[in-house]
Design brief:
With about 150 residues, the protein is of the alpha+beta class. The protein has four helices and three strands, in the order H-E-E-H-H-E-H. It has a domain of about 100 residues: GMP Synthetase, Chain A, domain 3 (2-Layer Sandwich). A three-stranded mixed beta sheet has the order 1-2-3, covered by helices on one side.
């Protein structure tokens, strides 16, 4: 089975869906918060191993505890996966903490801060330029064209 084949994509999607359902509804570990989501799953072509990227809403301590709880419940999750899916082999699951959502939120906040700063700076520079700006002959207007007319 090739890595990007249709069969591989379908298996990855189905394993992701079933894992998310098992984590959400069947695991009673208090270390795993309700807002735990399975972001992506990559099952090996031989169906022996599986990488599951998991995202947790909360701080780093909550994420560490959730990852510890998921790793301790790995056997139960694998047995439930075997019951719900009809695969030749039930893959051994390796949970990996996905930081992409937190990284995206952080970058979005940084972009918003930069945009606010630049709009404040632009407002200040517009006020300064309005006070003393006057176009002289040969000056360039807002469209980037010379205001001086060339004689033909």
């Amino acid at each position: 089975m090739r890595k990007n084949s249709i069969k591989s994509t379908r298996i990855n999607g189905e394993v992701r869906r079933v894992l998310a359902e098992i984590i959400r509804s069947e695991i009673k570990d208090p270390r795993i918060p309700q807002m735990t989501s399975v972001v992506a799953v990559e099952v090996a072509p031989d169906l022996k191993t599986c990488k599951a990227w998991v995202s947790v809403l909360g701080d780093e301590e909550t994420a560490k505890n959730a990852l510890t709880g998921l790793r301790s419940a790995e056997g139960y999750i694998r047995s439930q996966l075997a019951r719900q899916m009809n695969l030749r082999n039930t893959p051994e699951i390796r949970f990996i903490m996905d930081q992409s959502i937190a990284y995206g939120v952080k970058m979005s906040k940084m972009i918003d801060e930069v945009n606010k700063e630049s709009s404040v700076n632009n407002d200040e520079s517009d006020e300064d330029s309005d006070k003393g700006s006057s176009y002289q002959d040969g000056a360039i207007d807002d469209n980037g064209e010379s205001s001086e007319q060339s004689e033909e």
